[in-house]
Structure formats: structure tokens, C-alpha cells
């Protein structure tokens, strides 16, 4: 056939040479060429390089490299997922940390070398798909090649003699094969037929789907955003960058891409296993919110659960964490309220033992009327076990809440301009409030209880407890395309792996004695039990339309017989 | 009061069920052990018959270079005069007949083999009961931690084996190797990995979890069967190579390997098994991504578990590529297949134990 025709891969049939054109084009897989070096100057080199890149050997190598390259990212802390772990690692291994830094090992999946591997792989993929698609289109427009001269050499073969005329047999064969949805045509003294083109369609669809997925993924990385916001019951959030506690976005994301919406957290509810070995394990978390879309949107109510985010436009609002926020009132010596807030505390364990800090920054004057700041280290147990029990919460729900406060006064250090965690006190410029015994003032409060600050410095009241929920708001454009690509990939893959592409030839010619000899042969892309089975089936039907004629005397060489009928069929493994 | 009493009662029945489950798992181990001994008996008795088919075929084919020809009847109920299909294997391929199986044609060995399979069926049913009661005791699917994952995994692997047998596939030779590892798997489960039945954290409440994890377990079980076949292929292949080059394999090899299917059959079996389940594995990863998208706000985040699923996937893709296009048929492709299964194993055990990520939940 034409020059561009590449042979079947070596797996198909051992002796392609003998089959000639008949075995060609049974797939669009490129042939492997040995990497002989060019001597043609720049163009020659470029062409050589391209051919190498799009060869199966290199594709395989790149695939292997991709999987190897993904390994370090799973073993070394990644800055994308856990910044603090990376910092810890750097502290623990300073020199190794530097080396890792240079190699991009703290962000493997966005490192230069990892990107290089997959970009090369996808260039290779495109370079592979385009010619294969053309070739396949050519095959679809062409016809299956005619029968090779010696059908006996094919992997599945059968023959018989019949009284029917050769034309009749060929007509019958053509009709039969077409009925079985083979692409069949008359090629001289034989009928050539082929089936299973969907295999190629599936294979090309799969590889194209991989490209679609990659582009969708890259698109998503560039335009994505992800932010967190902690909201206490009764409070709200509106989707602008300044409102986020932390915010990350892709390189091409712009603020205008933020979907305009806002919501209020009406109520958070967590329920927990109350008995059994898993007492305390959460059963449900749900946040009831009021939300509105756009500047003047109508208020709507909904419930956000752990696996059920709220979707607004391209954004999704996920419930990711929860905890408690004791409501605190601080009064100065004159009894004026200088602070009244729900203070979110961070959970430390699965029973929501929590800690945090209360910072009174403005408006407080001490007993002498001097401006000062107050700080309280807070430790909170939603379910205190009672006097004498360990100082950890016994259960995650609010069964017996106790708030432990340590009181300080002085300078919180917040004005120094250095960002400070809202959950921690910087005690370097703070002084202890002392109790009667001269120790640090520290008290356990129940809801409604008040702790007096010594020397008429005022008081702190634990009014009650609200819950808070943490919301993660993300926008991941392109995920629809990624999903579509993924689904196409699965179907393509199934087609590519489960459909056999195969050819059948039926030759009918008059023998020397005037009796028609029918020969049938089948060829698959790979050796398979299906090809002989199908051939036997077809032969059986055709035989009924062109029944056998008595064998001539010397029939021995017309039908090869087995030397050892006991021999197990080649497909033994799965019979 | 009454409410509390009711929950206590429910907890008690659950605890009962959990205990029943443990008893069933231990019982199934006992029955698997009996099956194991029956398989051993099959192999031992089978060694009495000196078959030497492989050796015969390989030394014969040296003189007769032409590929052997085998005959299949056309269709199942073919009339005798109907044309017969001649199957000709590719030139260059070794024409080695499949071994007779563990019993080696010995009638007593065959009997023990059948007993072994019956015991395997029994053990499978008992183990299945154990998994089921475990699921009932926690009122959810039985794969919240590694203990549950392990018992479900071995149940499914044995289920795959028995289904292949029921489909009349020639897989009896797998029996001993499979049951040995199933016993190891269960031993590990009940000693190291045992976790009292417990509930899932809310992140695990999603129907995608059921889809994702059940297909993951199934794929693992099938990959596992493929890997066992691949290992046996490698042994059988070197055995055949040795014979073909005029060497004399040891007595043990002669006795055991000769009874396995031909290396070409083993290779083909392994390939089919791996290829058949690869699309499902692809689906498993995608289902996981969808679930991660719902639970964690991103569908792909290079979490260690995700990364290793991806690595496993790429490794199997390499294997399929090697076979389909690069023409790496034999041993090289087999090594790739084992590497891919190694990745799967690491993803399952290694990542849970050595690497921390979002997937390490519910203890180990
Ligand atoms: C991005 C990574 C890739 C993956 C995950 C992948 C995966 C696969 C899979 C699973 C198959 C099916 C194997 C079978 O039919 O048994 C396949 C077949 C194939 N792939 Fe890829 N592939 C990738 C890249 C490439 C590249 C870069 C090329 C070209 C250089 C390529 C060319 C082919 C060809 C020619 C076939 C076989 C077609 C046939 O069976 O007729 N693939 N690939």
C-alpha cells in the first residue's frame, strides 16, 4: 500500500511479510523505528527530534517519568497543601531544605521539571494523535485490503468444497458479513471484510480526552480562587477579597471574577454519637444560612453540610470546620462596657477542647483612668467533666461549658505593625493580674458568671456561647470540562480495550476438478480466541448456504489436520 | 430516659453484631486454613504423576520448527462434516501446552483440589457473613478503616477467583497462591489492623464514597489476581527458557511449574485481567475526584493518596502501552505490571501508614 502505511505492531502477527497489505493498517499505532541519527543539518535534527518525541518509546519513557516524578511530592511536605509542615521541615533540615528548594521539591507539581515532563508528554500525545487521526480517516475512506495469496497462513483458517458457484458463495458471504456489520466488499476472487473500527475511535477519543482534561486542569489552576472565612452565628460574609481570613488565587484570577453574593450564618448544628465505643464522633454538621446573590438579590435560606456545598454561580461554599465562640463582656472600673463580642476559639482535639485569646484593644481605662489594653488567655471546655476530672472536654457538644480565663494587662503589641495571630497573646509587654494570693488571676467561669479584676480594674463576664463555622469558598473554572473529558476518557478506553479490530476474508474459486473451493480466514490485531470463534460461526452459516461437496480422493492436503488433537487450544488460560 | 434506653439497646445489638462479625472472620480463617492444606495436598499428590509436557513440547519443537496446529470445532454444536477452523499461533511463539493444573492428572490430587475449592467457597461465605455483620453493626458500608478494608478486600479477591471458576475459566492453578495471601491478609487484619467498629466522620458521608471505595476494592482485588498470574508467568517463562536452551531445571521447578499453564497463557491471562479492570480503575479515580470536590472543595489536590492513585494509574497505562504499541510483550511488560501493582499496594498500605494526608482518617 502507500508509503505512509505502517505495519501492524509486532504483536499482531508474527509474519507480516507474508501477509503483505492484508495485515497492514489494522491499527493506527505508529511503527517503532530505531533511533538512527540524522545527517541533514538543522531541519534534519528537528525532524529527528520530533520523530523521537512522538515515538512510542519516548511516550512510554515520559509516562514512566511522570509517575516517578509524582512520587517526591507525596513524601515531601508541599507548600501548596501545608505551609507549616514545610516550615517545620526547613527548620529541622536546613541544608536539605535548601537543596529541596533549589530543586522545587516543596512544590513538585508546579515545578519546572515536572511541568516539563507533562508538557513534553502532551506534545508527544498531540504529535501522535494528529497523524493517527488522518491515517484513520484514510482507512475509513478506503476499503479493507483484499485477501493475501495464501490464506492458510492466517491465524484462523477454514476451507471446504461446495457444489455452489463461486459467485453465489461470494454473494452469500458479502450479504452475511454485511449483515454482521462488517465493512465488506468484493475484491476479485474474494470478499474482504473488516470490523471493529470503534476500537480506534475509542482509542483516539481517549487520548484526545486526556488533552481536554489537561487543558481544563491548567485553566482551572490559572483562574481558580480559594479563600477561608470564619463566621460566628449571627454574623455574615460578603464575597470581597478584604473579607477573607486568607485568600489564594491562580495567576490570571482577577478580583472581578468574584461572584457577588453574601450570606449570614443563622445557626450551626452538630450532632454526635452519644453512646457506644464511638461516643463523641460527629454524625452531622450543618450550617443554616441566609444568602443573597448580587447587590439587591432576594434573601434565600439553605443548609450547607459537609459534603453538600452551596453553589452560587461558579463559586462553591463549603463547610470545613466549626468550633465555639464564647460571648464575652468586659467592663471597666466604672462599670461601662468596653468590649462585647463572641470570641471564636480554636479546637484542639476531637472533643473541641478549645483555646484562644480575648484582646481588648481600645476604650479601656484602668482604675487610675489610664488607657491600657487587656488580654485574656482563654481555654474552653464544651463538656467539662466536673471537679477533679482532667482539664479536657469530655464531649464535643455543649453539655457543661466551662471557660477558663487568665487575665493580663498592659500592651498587647498589636500596634507594632507586625501581624499577630488573633488566637494568641503576645505576653512580652503584658503584666499579670494577681489574685489575692499573689498568683496569676485565673478562674473557671460558667455561662453568666463574672470574674472581677483586682483593684477595681473592672470585670469580665462569660455571657453564653455561640458556635462558629469555617467556610471555604472556591471557584474552579474548567471543572465541567475536566469531568466531561474524564467521562469521554472512560468510554474511549473501554472501546479501545474491549473491542477487537479484525478482518475476515472469504475466497471462492473453482478448483481443478470444477468443484468450488471456499477458503475463509480471520486476522485480529492480536491473537485472540474470539477471531477463530467468530470465523467458525460465520463459516457455519455460510456452509449452510453453500453445503459441502464430497471430498475428492486426495483430500489429505486440502484440510490440514492436527498432528495431535489432544493439544489444548492456544487460549487455554481462560477456557 | 426511654430515648437513652433505646440508644443503649441499639448500641448493645450493634456490639453483638460486631462480636458475631469477629467470630465469623476467625471462623473463615480456620476454613481457609483447611482449604490451604487441601490445596497443598493437591499439589503434593499431583507431583506423583510425571507429566513433563513442557519439556516434551520444547524439545520436540526444536526438530519440528513449524508451529503446531490445533483444531477447534466450528461452533459449539457443530455437525462433524462442517468446516473446522484451524488456529495457527504466530510464528516465533513457543508452542507449549498448558500444564494440567495442580493435581497433575492424579485422580486423588484432583479430589483434594475439589475439596479445596469447596472449602474455599465455604470460607468465602463465612467471611462474607463476617463483612456483612460488620457492616450491619456500624450501619454503614464496611470500609471505614484498614481493618474493614482488608477483610472486604480479601473477600472480594476470593469472590473474583470463584467467579472466574464459575465462568469455567481455567484458573484453578491460582488457588493455593491466592489462599495463602488471603490468610496473610486476614492475619494482618485481625492482629495489627483491628479497630473496634466505629462511625465515619461527616466527610465520609457521601454516596460517592460508596462508589469510589467499592470500585477501588474491586479493582485492587482484580489487579491482585493479575499480579499473581504475572509472577507465575515470570517463573514459568524462565523455566521454559531454560528448557528451550537445553538446560535442566531443578526438580521442584519441574514438578511445580510444569503443572501451570503455559507462560503464554499466563501472560495473556494477566494482560486480560489488568486491561479489563483498567477502565474501572480510571473511573475509581474520577469518582474519588468528584467526592473530593464535594468534601474538600477541590477535585484534585495532590494529596498523597490521590498522588499514588495517579502513579498507579500511569504505571498501568505504561504497561498497557508497552503491550499494545511498543511491542514489549514478555518479561519487560510483566515487570511493568508488577511495578504498577507495587504502586497500588503502596497506595493502600504505605500511604496510610507512612504518609499523613487527608485520607488518613479513622485511625489506621
Ligand atoms: C498521557 C498519557 C497517556 C496515557 C495515560 C495513555 C494511555 C493509553 C492507553 C490506556 C491505551 C490503551 C492500550 C491498549 O489498547 O491496550 C493507549 C493506547 C495507545 N496510545 Fe496512549 N496514552 C498516553 C499517551 C500517549 C502518547 C504520548 C502516544 C503517542 C506518542 C500514545 C499513543 C498510543 C497508541 C498508538 C495506542 C494504541 C493504539 C492501538 O491500540 O491501536 N499515547 N494509551
Automatic annotation (TrEMBL), chain A:
<feature type="transmembrane region" description="Helical">
    <location>
        <begin position="58"/>
        <end position="76"/>
    </location>
</feature>
<feature type="transmembrane region" description="Helical">
    <location>
        <begin position="204"/>
        <end position="223"/>
    </location>
</feature>
<feature type="transmembrane region" description="Helical">
    <location>
        <begin position="112"/>
        <end position="134"/>
    </location>
</feature>
<keyword id="KW-0201">Cytochrome c-type biogenesis</keyword>
<feature type="compositionally biased region" description="Polar residues">
    <location>
        <begin position="1"/>
        <end position="11"/>
    </location>
</feature>
<feature type="domain" description="ResB-like">
    <location>
        <begin position="56"/>
        <end position="535"/>
    </location>
</feature>
<dbReference type="GO" id="GO:0017004">
    <property type="term" value="P:cytochrome complex assembly"/>
</dbReference>
<dbReference type="Pfam" id="PF05140">
    <property type="entry name" value="ResB"/>
</dbReference>
<dbReference type="InterPro" id="IPR007816">
    <property type="entry name" value="ResB-like_domain"/>
</dbReference>
<feature type="region of interest" description="Disordered">
    <location>
        <begin position="542"/>
        <end position="575"/>
    </location>
</feature>
<feature type="region of interest" description="Disordered">
    <location>
        <begin position="1"/>
        <end position="33"/>
    </location>
</feature>
<keyword id="KW-0812">Transmembrane</keyword>
<dbReference type="GO" id="GO:0016020">
    <property type="term" value="C:membrane"/>
</dbReference>
<dbReference type="InterPro" id="IPR023494">
    <property type="entry name" value="Cyt_c_bgen_Ccs1/CcsB/ResB"/>
</dbReference>
<keyword id="KW-1133">Transmembrane helix</keyword>
<protein>
    <submittedName>
        <fullName>Cytochrome C biogenesis protein</fullName>
    </submittedName>
</protein>
<feature type="transmembrane region" description="Helical">
    <location>
        <begin position="480"/>
        <end position="499"/>
    </location>
</feature>
<keyword id="KW-0472">Membrane</keyword>
From TrEMBL, chain B:
<feature type="transmembrane region" description="Helical">
    <location>
        <begin position="307"/>
        <end position="326"/>
    </location>
</feature>
<feature type="transmembrane region" description="Helical">
    <location>
        <begin position="174"/>
        <end position="195"/>
    </location>
</feature>
<dbReference type="GO" id="GO:0005886">
    <property type="term" value="C:plasma membrane"/>
</dbReference>
<feature type="transmembrane region" description="Helical">
    <location>
        <begin position="269"/>
        <end position="292"/>
    </location>
</feature>
<dbReference type="InterPro" id="IPR017562">
    <property type="entry name" value="Cyt_c_biogenesis_CcsA"/>
</dbReference>
<keyword id="KW-0812">Transmembrane</keyword>
<protein>
    <submittedName>
        <fullName>Cytochrome C biogenesis protein</fullName>
    </submittedName>
</protein>
<feature type="transmembrane region" description="Helical">
    <location>
        <begin position="149"/>
        <end position="167"/>
    </location>
</feature>
<feature type="transmembrane region" description="Helical">
    <location>
        <begin position="207"/>
        <end position="235"/>
    </location>
</feature>
<keyword id="KW-1133">Transmembrane helix</keyword>
<keyword id="KW-0472">Membrane</keyword>
<dbReference type="InterPro" id="IPR002541">
    <property type="entry name" value="Cyt_c_assembly"/>
</dbReference>
<dbReference type="InterPro" id="IPR045062">
    <property type="entry name" value="Cyt_c_biogenesis_CcsA/CcmC"/>
</dbReference>
<feature type="transmembrane region" description="Helical">
    <location>
        <begin position="115"/>
        <end position="137"/>
    </location>
</feature>
<dbReference type="Pfam" id="PF01578">
    <property type="entry name" value="Cytochrom_C_asm"/>
</dbReference>
<feature type="domain" description="Cytochrome c assembly protein">
    <location>
        <begin position="143"/>
        <end position="356"/>
    </location>
</feature>
<keyword id="KW-0201">Cytochrome c-type biogenesis</keyword>
<feature type="transmembrane region" description="Helical">
    <location>
        <begin position="24"/>
        <end position="45"/>
    </location>
</feature>
<feature type="transmembrane region" description="Helical">
    <location>
        <begin position="333"/>
        <end position="351"/>
    </location>
</feature>
<dbReference type="GO" id="GO:0017004">
    <property type="term" value="P:cytochrome complex assembly"/>
</dbReference>
<dbReference type="GO" id="GO:0020037">
    <property type="term" value="F:heme binding"/>
</dbReference>
